[in-house]
Amino acid sequence: MYRNHSEKLPQPKSCTKHSLPEPGTTDWSRDGRLPDSRPRPGYCFRCGENGHLASSCRDAPDPTKVAEKRRKLRERQA
Hints:
The protein is mainly alpha-helical and 78 residues long. It has a domain at 39-78. The chain is 19% helix and 0% strand. The protein is rod-shaped and about 85 Å long. The model has no long low-confidence stretch (mean pLDDT 76).
């Protein structure tokens, strides 16, 4: 009925929590997946300028600039 106080009780097993890395230590994409190892395009497919996507582009199409940027991107991805 009474326990012997010299008897040791089993200790709970430690558990590890899965946690996200510290901010700024890993480059995560917006959806939480690790980035692809290949360089990604960072330019508009309509006008060829950096800083926005074709869906929000207000500039005139520039197929020559887009083709040149696409060629350079393929070289970096190879």
